[in-house]
What does this fold into?
Amino acid sequence: MKAIALHSYKGGTGKTSISANLAALYADRGFSVCLLDYDFRAPSIQILFKTKIRNTLNDFLEEKCEITDTLHDVSDKYKVRGRLHVGFASPSIDSMREMMTKDRRWEMKALHRTLSAKNKIHDEVKADFLIFDTSPGVSYSSINALASSDFVVLVTKMDEFDMAGTRELVHGIYDSLGRKTGLLLNRIPMEQFPLGAGQKELEEYMAKIFNLPFLGIIPCYCDIQMNGGKSLFALEQPKHPFSQALSEVIERIEHHLKTV
Amino acid sequence: MRAVAMTKEGNSTETVRLLQQLNKNIEILSTKLDRIIKIQELLTDKLSPKEKPSYEGLPLDVATLLSLPDHLRKTALALSELGEATATDISRKTGRVRAAESDYLNQLVSKGYVAKKRKGHDVYFYIEAQ
It folds into this structure.
């Protein structure tokens, strides 16, 4: 099993949408996939899957249940060829507030539980892929997920704020944790989107300044924005350029995972 | 008799003079030592500023992990996953030799991040809050 974390420096890069659609595409390729919402500050995956939540990942970290008790099997609902399990963070404000008050000793235990969860998901769910959606920036839950992953997909937009912070993340967090990382440019305005040879040039330029392998470049599609988390777009419209771009991202991740 | 008494008096005057000279030398030496200590303190402060945060003794969370040197971080991360382990268990996880892991684990113990206990012939390392 390989664990992949999606992370970004700033919010609004499209991490949640990409992680949910990546998980769905992997599952539709016949793999067994677990998607965990580790964005405890602003959980949103539950909006996309519209499933009645039993146990949350907050319950798991609080030692109230096992990681397997938090997994919701949505394979039949989305008619994927493999299996798709989703673990949700609690969307209640009380839970979000509670997570903000945790001390370092609690966070140490949360790291241990997250690392152990990975083994349990491998042994009991027989998952091929574990995908973490994380909160942006440097938060305990995000770094716990990064430390538990084999590969990090770093999602960034093409603005100066995002890119400057992203460089800091690479040097300060990913390099220190020794996690292999790939860069994904997302939500690129159509006016800035390079065509033909320009795309290759941009890829090479980005790979050089971040010193990271490049996973892809996805334009900002109005229909994705209009969809606004109502459904799993890549499954609904597999021929859409967004879905095609994500399929290419999967190919590139696969290539890099072979060396992890 | 008078000559002997004079000689004794002369000797004792010379002894007092020598002691006074010795005392003076010690005072000079002491002043010089104080200056050396002061310079050493200044140099130590410059080389490792006091404002540099010390993580020693804090819980082994991700913030602490990120502050550790690479070789100790790898060991600490493996122990965070296993919860409790021998140097051999950690060595299997990290792919490094057991002796090196044993050394790294003991460094983590001395920094106060990790505790250890003996079970039969084996020494188990663990993170205290677990």
Summary: Chain B has a mean pLDDT of 84. The longest strand of chain B covers residues 115-119.
